[in-house]
Design goal:
Layout (H helix, E strand, L loop, with lengths): L8 H9 L5 H4 L18 H15 L3 H9 L5 E3 L5 H8 L12 H16 L5 E2 L2 E2 L2 H22 L1 E3 L8 H4 L5 E3 H12 L26 H11 L3 H15 L10 E2 L7 E2 L9 E6 L11 H5 L6 E3 L1 H9 L1 E4 L10 E4 L19 E3 L9 E3 L1 H5 L1 E2 L17 E2 L2 E6 H14 L3 H9 L4 H5 L6 H4 L20 H4 L18 H20 L5 H9 L7 H9 L4 H8 L9
Antiparallel strand pairs: 1-9, 2-3, 4-5, 6-7, 8-16, 10-11, 12-13, 14-15
């Protein structure tokens, strides 16, 4: 058991007294007092926390780009004529040198400050034989390697630096570019020795955030790296280990459901899950500081980014399987619409949408807008300046976090890995009914042959988790029941089953994690699982373009996938 003590609010106060004056200042990106030019060692828990908070403040600067570069290059959104030149360029995969999102400086700033901290932290200090600051070292290493991975996913290559640089811009060109396919194995080797190391347990809130959800989780990052590298069993084992450690579940109470088969009312439970992060980039509560502009870009009378038409249509026409209550074993009605998207009652009355929905007022009131960031937003005050007419006469909202992992991400990535590791029925159960003891032991839902090898990462029966399928959250509790038609088709060969389930996982990733910054990376990663890579990725992205053939031709060269 860890000897390390939880940092108390008094200790945090001591940290602040060394250079910062308030909790808000901790997450202020303009603060530079975390720099280590004086050469001092980091040899106390307070110093280590202070250093990590400074690095997190730098991470804020790439948060908005995490979302925009991940979504604009995918297939779920399109830009409007009102979008900026920079946003249109990214969406068209034609990025010029003066695009405001092409700079890598902020990424390297995070990396360099991590390198300073890793160089100065004293991991040999022990208390009762425990290495006191090793958890902080691992936390900072994971932030650095996550930042490298994001850089590579966006720019295709990085200059890999592990030594702190006093003048980074002067020395950057001295390091060779390393492409993403060579970088990923390097990052895996970095993190593997620390996969089971605990992170700091200083969980007292800092500016309203629990610190444990602001750290990059090594097991989740390793899972993503393994999955990108097509190391499926290793990826599944990392996601499983995280689930086992944390006990996270897909709870049916966090789903949306029609109140009755008349389809004249719905219970909206899913909105809150967008702030239930397992990993996040936090932002200060001070309205005067920097915050992402994603609410204004999406939920606006003059939006820049909107859902792709095909996605709106697919979500609207999805079958919803209604049951009267959780314990019912009868499907009482098949209705229309995945309730994580645009929700329209009979009589054209609309509900508060979860991921996207119609603009409630004005001349464009039939237009679908992304609402996810609005739901994630925090109400501001009259001092917050905004040109967003959506907030006329009401309190504006600003964004305090960007989620990089939620519970459904973990389960869906596990499903992706398990499927490609040769267990499609196990993977499909994640979507349809959830991995719980009843499902694992019924001998029907999951092919017994898939469990015969007794892989440790398939042993969900011993975890005792009250899991429900991710698809239930928008398509109804009845989706788990026989007769709904949501099944792997009979008669398919093993490889055909795997491809069918993979397509369903991609569809579920779209419904559940839309607009959060994942889609291009999801398409790239899943496409790499297939022998015809990059055909699937190119086809899906091109389908939302005004000129699909032109987009296909552009994406036929991998050099055009990256922001240059």
């Amino acid at each position: 058991m860890k000897i390390r003590h939880i940092i108390s609010s008094l200790a945090v106060g001591a940290v602040l007294a060394t250079g910062l004056t308030s909790c808000e200042d901790i997450f202020d990106t303009d603060s530079d007092s975390y720099r280590y030019d004086n050469g001092n060692k980091i040899d106390t828990e307070a110093d280590a926390l202070y250093s990590t908070l400074g690095i997190l403040s730098q991470l804020q600067k790439i948060g908005e780009r995490y979302v925009l570069l991940g979504e604009l290059r995918g297939d779920l959104v399109t830009v409007t004529p009102d979008a900026s030149f920079s946003l249109r360029e990214i969406s068209d995969f034609e990025v010029s040198a003066d695009n405001e999102y092409v700079s890598t400086r902020d990424y390297y700033s995070v990396i360099n400050n991590c390198n300073f901290a890793l160089d100065r932290i004293d991991t040999e200090i022990k208390v009762n034989s425990e290495r006191l600051l090793l958890p902080d070292y691992v936390a900072i290493l994971a932030i650095r390697d996550w930042t490298y991975f994001q850089m590579a996913l966006n720019f295709g290559a990085v200059r890999y630096i592990t030594e702190p640089q006093l003048s980074l811009e002067d020395t950057l060109e001295d390091y060779p570019l390393i492409g993403i396919d060579d970088l990923v194995p390097m990052l895996i080797r970095n993190l593997e020795p620390y996969a089971n190391e605990e992170l700091p347990d200083n969980n007292d809130p800092v500016d309203g955030f629990e610190m444990r959800y602001c750290y990059v989780q090594p097991r989740l990052l390793l899972g993503d790296l393994y999955l990108y590298n097509n190391n499926y069993e290793q990826a599944a084992s990392m996601y499983y280990a995280y689930i086992e450690e944390t006990g996270i579940v897909i709870d049916y109470n966090e789903g949306n459901r029609w109140n009755n088969t008349a389809q004249d009312g719905a219970s909206m439970m899913h909105n809150s899950t967008y702030t239930s992060a397992r990993m996040r980039i936090p932002y200060t509560s001070d309205l005067k500081d920097y915050h992402p502009d994603l609410i204004n870009l999406t939920y606006n009378t003059v939006p820049s980014i909107v859902p792709a038409d095909w996605f709106v249509e697919e979500m609207a026409t999805a079958a919803y399987y209604h049951t009267e209550n959780m314990n019912s074993n009868v499907i009482s009605g098949v209705l229309q619409g995945d309730l994580r998207g645009n929700i329209v009652y009979r009589g054209n009355k609309t509900a508060t949408p979860v991921a996207f929905g119609t603009l409630p007022t004005g001349p464009n009131s039939n237009r679908c807008l992304i609402t996810k960031f609005f739901h994630m937003g925090t109400e501001g005050s009259s001092i917050l300046s905004t040109d967003n007419e959506m907030f006329a006469g009401s309190t504006p909202r600003y964004q305090r976090e960007i989620n990089t992992f939620r519970a459904p991400h973990v389960y869906l990535r596990f499903a992706e890995a398990a499927n490609r590791a040769g267990k499609p029925s196990l993977a499909f159960a994640v979507l349809k009914c959830g991995l719980n003891p009843e499902v694992m032991n019924d001998g029907v839902t999951i092919d017994p042959e898939e469990l015969a090898d007794e892989k440790p990462w398939t042993n969900f029966s011993v975890l005792g988790l009250s899991n429900y399928g991710t698809a239930m959250r928008g398509r109804g509790l009845g989706i788990r029941l026989p007769g709904c038609g949501y099944d792997i088709p009979a008669g398919l060969a093993k490889e055909e089953k795997i491809e069918f389930v993979e397509e369903e996982i991609l569809r579920e990733l779209a419904a559940e994690t839309a607009f959060e910054g994942n889609r291009f990376f999801d398409l790239l990663r899943v496409s790499r699982h297939r022998a015809d890579h990059p055909a699937m990725m190119i086809d899906k992205i091109s389908a939302r373009a005004e000129n699909p053939d032109q987009m296909k031709a552009r994406l036929s060269s991998s050099e055009n996938w990256w922001v240059k």
